[in-house]
Amino acid sequence: MGLVFQNPDDQLFCPTVADEVAFGPRNMGVTDPELKARIEQALQAVDMAGFDERSAHHLSFGQRKRVATATVISMQPEIWAFDEPSANVDFKTNRMLSEFIDSLDRTVIIVTQDLYFAAETCDRLVIVQSGAVRADGSTRYILEQPELLQKHDLGFGHHCKICEKFRTTG
């Protein structure tokens, strides 16, 4: 299982971007040339090719988030987990993460309060509040219920634009 933290600074600690991406596979026994190929593939997947020798700590927040994602890509997990992937990122990073998540042919768990991001990337939504499941269903089913979302502080009732989109697209 691979986890991409909400705050990439909680995940990144190596001197260079390449070291960050290589850390997991190297500790699992992956060696050159496969290690080098994984680094290149992972950085390319998040549009960070050419940043290999840069320090992750000197990159923008969105770039660090993409590097954090690359660290998990290089591990080739069967299950992915993202904690608030769209939090505090620029439009480019948000798009890249959304498209990347859509491209995964794996189990993906996303923890988010961003209904727009959830609507774009999730087939199923589970509302958890106070440690208990409050609702579970298809994205369309959940987002067509503005009262449910408002009750759990996730929407704006009848004025929620994302909910309106689902109510009018049938």
Task: Please give a structural write-up.
The chain has helices at 17-27, 34-45, 61-73, 91-103, 115-121, 139-143, 146-151, 161-169; strands spanning 2-4, 79-83, 107-111, 124-129, 132-138. The protein is of the alpha/beta class. It folds into 2 domains: 2-115, Rossmann fold (3-Layer(aba) Sandwich); 123-170, no CATH class. Helix 1 packs parallel to helix 3, helix 2 crosses helix 3 (61-73) and helix 3 runs parallel beside helix 4 (91-103). The radius of gyration is 18 Å and the shape is elongated.
Which helices and strands occur, and which strands form pairs?
Blueprint: E1 2-4, H1 17-27, H2 34-45, H3 61-73, E2 79-83, H4 91-103, E3 107-111, H5 115-121, E4 124-129, E5 132-138, H6 139-143, H7 146-151, H8 161-169
Parallel strand pairs: 1-2, 2-3
Antiparallel strand pairs: 4-5
How would you summarize what this structure contains?
This protein is of the alpha/beta class.
As residue ranges, the low-confidence spans are none
What CATH calls the topology of the largest domain is Rossmann fold
β-strand amount? 15-25%
Q: What general form does the structure show?
A: elongated
Give the overall pLDDT as a whole number. Answer: 91
CATH class of the largest domain: Alpha Beta
The largest pleated sheet is described as: 3 strands, parallel
Number of strands: 5
Return the string of H and E elements: EHHHEHEHEEHHH
CATH architecture title of the largest domain: 3-Layer(aba) Sandwich
Q: What structural category do the secondary elements indicate?
A: alpha/beta
What is the number of helices?
8
Strand order of the largest sheet: 1-2-3
Tell me the domain tally.
2
Task: Name the CATH superfamily classification of the largest domain.
Answer: P-loop containing nucleotide triphosphate hydrolases
* Radius of gyration from the alpha-carbon trace, in angstroms: 18 Å
Share of helix, binned: 40-55%
End-to-end Cα distance, whole Å, is 36 Å
